# Entry
Amino acid sequence: MDAEKTFENLSIELETSKGKTLIFADPHIAFEPLRGLRMRTKFERKLAGFIKLKNPDFIIILGDIKEPLGVNPFTKKLLIEFFSELRDFEIIITRGNHDGKIEEALRHFENVKVVCHYSIDNYLFVHGHQNLPDVKFEKAFLGHIHPAITVRIGSSIRKTKCFLRIENFLILPTINPYMEGFNIKDGIKMIPFLKNSKEGNVYLPDGTYIGKFHLEPQPL
# Structure
């Protein structure tokens, strides 16, 4: 796996009033035991290395920084190791549904803040599992549903992660290369403020525009 290219394709970079801002979603650190993997991927070390290579001025993580709902010793160890590598960066985490008790592991990291939502320059950042906050914005970024579609490549058909844009909302895929995504038609139902959306535009991680996809059942 070319980790740098993979992480590059599964994240986005914006210029904000904070400077070069790196945004990604759903790392699910410490996912291996709960996903039935017998070997450690050391994914979080590769991700930390990518972040340091990119050297952003600001980082926004769109929730689900960890996989377990609580904080067991293994999870806490990995989180401390991960954020210890990133002490030189200002980091915002928009709390996800997997981020319960996250402060227990991060209380010694003054550069990391956990919030329900974050706004800057008319951009809104949320995880996506709750209703929208009462704030004004022009564009919003979220994760939560790990969007993916099934595409035909040559003679083969395979599932691939994607970015899903619905009006002024952009949903990012999970940055964890070892985790599959959810079909967008099923996943969209898990976002309260987008669950009734009728269609969205789909982009592959390399930026290729796939087209407009219907998100609700079509009449026969």
Q: What stands out?
A: DSSP finds five helices and 15 strands in the chain.
